[in-house]
Amino acid sequence: MDERKIQTYTLVSAPNVTGENFIKLLNIYRRPFAALVNNPAEGQRMKKLGVRHIVEVDTVHHEAWEVPGLPIGDVYLFEDSLPLCCRYLQMVRSWTTGTIFVVKTNASPRLIYKALGADHVVHTNTRQVSFLLGAAPGQVLEEVLR
Q1: Would you call 50 exposed, middle or buried from its count of C-beta atoms within 10 A (0-12, 13-18, 19+)?
Q2: Rounded to whole angstroms, what are the CA distances from 84 to 13, 35, 39, 130, 145?
Q3: What band does 143 get if pLDDT is binned at 50, 70 and 90?
Q4: Own/partner pairs for 104-113, CB < 8 Å, 24+ apart?
Q5: In Å, what is the CA distance from 85 to each residue of 25, 40, 124, 134?
Q6: Is the per-residue pLDDT at 140 higher than 50?
Q7: In angstroms, what CA-CA distances link 95 with 8, 26, 33, 117, 122?
Q8: Least confident of 2-6, 9-13, 79-83
Q9: DSSP letters for 9-38
Q10: Cys-Cys with 118: which of 20, 24, 97, 113 at CB 3.0–4.6 Å?
């Protein structure tokens, strides 16, 4: 019996600086990941950050939601818009059995995210998010995240 573990990709929606810093960390740690975007301009912005795998989705037409070709593991949704984050949650819950994190910096309600399938809703007032990957504070050079 072949017991090799299938490599999964972390899926990240990074519409803000905090999410961008998280993408930089994933690159530093060489973790396989893909960026979740809903328009070509956002995809280009992700490519400029060094993202190799882009999952572009149509968030308007529910019938167009397709499972990406990459095996998805954990999902990190950095909130910039409550409606968009909710739409992403509805979409990705069926794509993974991994953990789904919503990372928010504002006072939007948490329970809506939990009701839509988020496993963890994290509120942070900092742009330093290495704690999400289990890194100790100061373990990552701050210059890299500027």
Answers
A1: exposed
A2: 10, 15, 12, 24, 25
A3: very low
A4: 104/78, 104/79, 105/16, 105/18, 105/79, 106/79, 108/79, 108/82, 112/82, 112/86, 113/85, 113/86, 113/89
A5: 21, 18, 16, 24
A6: no
A7: 11, 20, 14, 12, 21
A8: 2-6
A9: EEEEE--SHHHHHHHHHHHHTT--EEEEES
A10: 113
Mean pLDDT (the chain, rounded): 86
Q: Contacts for 49-52 with beta carbons within 8 Å, 24 or more apart?
A: 49/14, 49/20, 49/23, 49/24, 50/23, 51/23
Instruction: For residues 67-92, give the mean pLDDT.
Output: 94
**Please, are residues 1 and 113 in contact by the beta-carbon 8 Å criterion?**
no
Q: Find where tokens 């742009």 sit.
A: 127
